[in-house]
Design goal:
Blueprint: E1 2-3, H1 14-24, H2 36-39, H3 41-56, E2 63-66, H4 69-83, E3 89-93, H5 98-109, E4 113-117, H6 127-133, E5 138-144, H7 156-165, E6 169-173, E7 192-196, E8 207-211, H8 226-229, H9 237-275, E9 279-281, E10 292-297, H10 302-311, E11 314-315, H11 331-336, E12 346-350, H12 357-375
Parallel strand pairs: 1-11, 3-4, 3-5, 5-6, 6-7
Antiparallel strand pairs: 2-8, 7-8, 9-10, 10-12
The protein binds pyridoxal-5'-phosphate (PLP).
Length: 376
């Protein structure tokens, strides 16, 4: 198998699995218990909280563990709205992940007004559009750091500063950015930020939400006193430890990420664009994650190409994994290039740490063969 779908999910790093194992076997207590067998697990949770915080330039006390980034995204927007009950306007973009978009759509049914900022052909928003959309009624702006389908990077620092200047809370979905590019929340006045474990070498089912100190927070999941009353539910210690370990590793290896992954991505992308006719890049050439390549193969339906690639053991996708079972065209590429069939004829390749030159060459050959066959 050649796995080129790391924006969908990543393999669990062996170090992460090893760090989790004791908490799946001997250390199965409840961290809220008063006796040592349970209570000592609090130390493991706090260590993980510190590791997550360090990856994003935050303080441990600003991290809340969640079950996934979908929950983190929902919780952040919910908290911002609760903080400003009189305000009824939300700003997001047309290319956010469905965990933001569909939550916003639900809020629209509840009477909120939502502005979906458009993107240009490169997948970028215009800061002037954001500036114009902000009103005294705006409670929250939710914009992503890196797009999951194209890898395009939004100017988060500028967005955060603009929101801060207007007194509007800013939430950032940093799921695809974390572990791939530096994130330093001491330098960008982001109020809420979401990450998830399974995009950076931890298992599925664990995420985190950063809430800046003194930023208002009303929990979405209400229950016991866990997470300092900010998220009810008995902590999944093993997954939390796994997320902490993955963040620690990501921080340590971050300087190497670009050097390792970009040449492989570029070799694949340049190879396809130069040797397969009628192919086109979707997304800004440079303002983009170094692992992601979103390409349109004109005249070839994405699904047909993906089936042939799957037969050759190559894993790629035609958009967000969580929407892969619908036959809708990519709404992200559609928002960028509405006039063309690009959104039905695109493939996302997203590379990761374990990919090799040999794999990229084999993938190139398989993609070339499949494209020739389908254009027949
Ligand atoms: N946000 C982005 C940008 C994503 O790519 C994803 C996952 O695909 C999510 C949020 C949701 O993450 P999770 O699967 O942890 O809910």
């Amino acid at each position: 198998m050649i796995y080129l779908d790391h924006n969908a999910t990543t393999p669990i790093a062996p170090e992460v699995l090893a760090a989790m194992m004791p908490y799946l076997t001997e250390e199965w207590g409840n961290p809220s218990s008063t006796y040592k067998f349970g209570a000592k697990l609090k130390g493991a949770i706090e260590a993980a909280r510190g590791q997550v915080a360090e990856l994003i330039g935050a303080q441990a006390s600003e991290i809340i563990f969640t079950s996934c980034a979908t929950e983190s995204n929902n919780a952040a927007i919910h908290a911002a709205l609760k903080a400003n009950p009189a305000k009824r306007h939300i700003i997001t973009s047309a290319v956010e992940h469905s965990s933001v978009l569909n939550f916003c759509r639900t809020l629209e049914y509840g009477g909120f007004r939502v502005t979906y900022l458009p993107v240009d052909r490169d997948g970028l928003i215009k800061l002037a559009d954001l500036e114009n959309a902000l009103t005294d009624d705006t409670a929250v702006v939710s914009l992503m750091w890196a797009n999951n389908e194209t890898g395009v990077l939004f100017p988060v620092k500028e967005i955060a500063e603009m929101c801060r200047a207007r007194g509007v809370l800013f939430h950032c979905d940093a799921v695809q950015a974390a572990g791939k590019i530096p994130i330093n929340l001491r330098e960008a006045p982001v109020d809420y930020l979401s990450i998830t474990g399974h995009k950076l070498g931890a298992p599925k089912g664990v995420g985190a939400l950063y809430v800046r100190r003194k930023t208002p927070f009303t929990p979405l999941i209400v229950g016991g006193h866990q997470e300092r009353n900010q998220r009810g539910g008995t902590e999944n210690v093993a997954l939390i430890v796994g997320l902490g370990k993955a963040c620690g590793l990501a921080r340590q290896k971050l300087p190497e990420y670009d050097k390792k992954v970009r040449p492989l991505r570029d070799a694949l992308e340049d190879g396809i664009l130069s040797s397969i006719p009628n192919t086109e890049l979707n997304g800004h050439k440079t303002q983009r994650l170094s692992n992601t390549s979103n390409l349109t193969f004109h005249g070839i339906e994405s699904e047909a190409l993906l089936i042939l690639l799957d037969q050759e053991g190559i894993c790629a996708s035609s958009g967000a994994a969580c929407l892969a079972d619908s036959d809708e065209p990519s709404y992200v590429v559609q928002a960028m290039k509405s006039e063309s069939a690009a959104s039905r004829q695109m493939i996302r390749f997203s590379l990761g740490w374990e990919n090799t030159n040999v794999e990229v060459k084999a993938a190139m050959n398989a993609i070339t063969r499949a494209a020739k066959m389908l254009r027949g």
